Amino acid sequence: MKNIKLIEVPSEIGAGTRGASLGVEAIKIAALDFMSNFFIHFPSEKVQTENQMLFEPIHSPYAKRLQGVLTMTKRISSAVTDSIQNNFFPIVISGDHSNAVGTIAGIKAALPDSKLGVIWIDAHADLHTPYTTPSGNVHGMPLAASIGENNSRSKVHELDEKTAKQWEELKSWGKTTPKVLGENIVFISLRDFEKEEKALIDKYGMKVITTSEVRRKGVESVVRSSLKFLNECTHIYVSFDVDSLDPSISRGTGTPVGNGLKEREADDLVSKLLQNRKVCCFEITEVNPTLDTENQMAEIAFHILQRGVNVLMMN
């Protein structure tokens, strides 16, 4: 049985649409509506945010609020490292996906000898860098930062010195760069990415499993092939962005994309992945209740979270 610790990160400075910082509380409200004691049952830690930066001018158009993301990375990584070192299984509930840079850094700091694999359940690849980004939003960059990439070959922008320096600092935060090798990444339900990101997927031979493949082969088969692909890894981090779900279920996320997972598919996927003993951390992110009706997305996220944790408790 695993000791669970909840790490709440209501930070949304990496997102382009406002409101994801309210996602953590929205999930808690869903738990209350289902009369669940989930949030009082487990120890939890709330990571201080830099959301005041949302009201300040943006200094770098190609990596908006990057200094704040760097600060968050340090705080989150510290919380995750402490949890793992104290024999907890960290469940990170975060605002936007830029927070994953800190989660991955924290796992790597706690397990420096590990060969870490990542299963990224997301509509997007999040493999942009400040040199390639179409939006400047850092929640589109966490995997590039974690594999230590600039993607210079696909460069679109010239960076000012300060942004370039902060990006280097973000990539190299902690003792190791890269934290994850590019060839140890699996995408599930990926369906919206740019050619610059595709260049990195191809360069490293990352595994991409589409929504239709999940449907055609079934969840069990997809989980098996994902774990087989990461066979050489000693530890695995599973990151679940709710925009992997189909917008027909809920609009409660900043960047919805059609042809996503059904609730049952996502639920089964996360539960079956968390049965694997190599999985050492789970993150759920990008719930934005301001874009939603009747807190639907948070309710779905809570169901996925609760079932996943039940599986961990039995393991």
Structure notes:
With about 325 residues, the chain is α/β, with parallel strands linked by helices. The chain has a single domain (about 5-315), classed as 3-Layer(aba) Sandwich (Arginase, Chain A). It is built from 11 helices and 8 strands. It has helices at about 25-35, 40, 65-85, 100-110, 140-145, 160-170, 195-205, 210-215, 220-230, 265-275, 295-315, and strands at about 5-10, 45, 90-95, 115-120, 185-190, 205-210, 235-240, 280-285. It has an 8-stranded parallel beta sheet with strand order 2-1-3-8-7-4-5-6, with helices on both faces. Helix 10 (about 265-275) links the parallel strand 7 (about 235-240) and strand 8 (about 280-285). Helix 3 runs parallel beside helix 4 (about 100-110). The longest helix has 20 residues, at about 65-85. The radius of gyration is 18 Å and the shape is globular. The chain starts with a strand and ends with a helix. The model has no long low-confidence stretch (mean pLDDT about 95).
Task: State the end-to-end distance.
Answer: 5 Å
Order of helices and strands: EHHEHEHEHHEHEHHEHEH
- The proportion of residues forming helix, as a percent range, comes to 25-40%
Mean pLDDT across the residues is 97
What is the CATH topology classification name? Arginase, Chain A
CATH class: Alpha Beta
So how many helices? Answer: 11
Task: Please state the overall shape, judged from the principal axes of the Cα atoms.
Answer: globular
Number of strands: 8
The biggest sheet amounts to: 8 strands, parallel
Number of domains: 1
Name the strands of the widest sheet in spatial order: 2-1-3-8-7-4-5-6
Low-confidence stretches: none
- The quaternary organization reads as single chain
Instruction: Give the name of the CATH superfamily.
Output: Ureohydrolase domain
Strand content: 5-15%
In CATH terms, what is the architecture? 3-Layer(aba) Sandwich
The gyration radius over C-alpha positions equals 18 Å
Query: Structural class per helix/strand content?
Result: alpha/beta
